[in-house]
Amino acid sequence: MSTAQLGVDAARVDARDVDEARRRLAERGAVVLTGLPATADALAVAAAHLYGERLRRLFPMRERASEDGGAVHLHADSFDQVVDIGGVPTRRRDPDEDAVLVQCVRPAPDGGRSFVLDAYRYLDTRADAELLDFLTGKDVDLYGAWAGLRGLPATPRVARHVEYTRTGRRIARRTDGAVPLHRDRDAGHITAMLDRFRDSVRAIEPELPRIGLAEGDILAIDNYRCWHGRDPHTGHRAVRILTLRTDDAR
Q1: What is the CATH number of the domain that holds 120?
Q2: N or C: which end of the chain has fewer CB within 10 A?
Q3: What share of the chain is helix, strand, coil (3-state, %, to 5)?
């Protein structure tokens, strides 16, 4: 399979055509919803249209604005963040978010296009045996590189990059926060494999199809199946991001 074939050329579907949007998302792992205003309410409506009664939990929307922003490399959204609100522990992000919606609030005047990679295809056709053995067989601390950030738990989040839900759904993780577990005797090998994984994935990025988002467009992504990123841009760019869990989540 060529590098370009690993990419997802997400179809553009009117958000009101719920059946077609769901079909395209299941088929390709990503879809662009059109015809909605660039409001936070529209993002929640899009989630309801796509997942319906399968929605389990919406996490707080995040607004991201950047001026002359650099590249965002391929990744799957996930984070382990629990905060104290009025004495009540409240989860704001989840390591097992299985869907992400990115709404274009203001497109950049130049650059900033999105790209999506089908991680299942990557694992099945591009990862060599040694890398695949590492991704499926080695525990890492998923967010250890970000241990100083407020809101992260003191307890390491231990997992493998490729795992399965109890119903058999495959999870393909990709995060720059992963590090070896504390005092892991294979730390040197794990660090080398993490670097190799990062370099292998980034080498694919230039050949992936680009996805241009107009104001109000929403890029919906299967976060267990696909990794996404965006090109650098000049000028001002703004998006809203909504992550969620469905009945299919781990």
Answers
A1: 3.60.130.10
A2: N
A3: 30, 35, 40
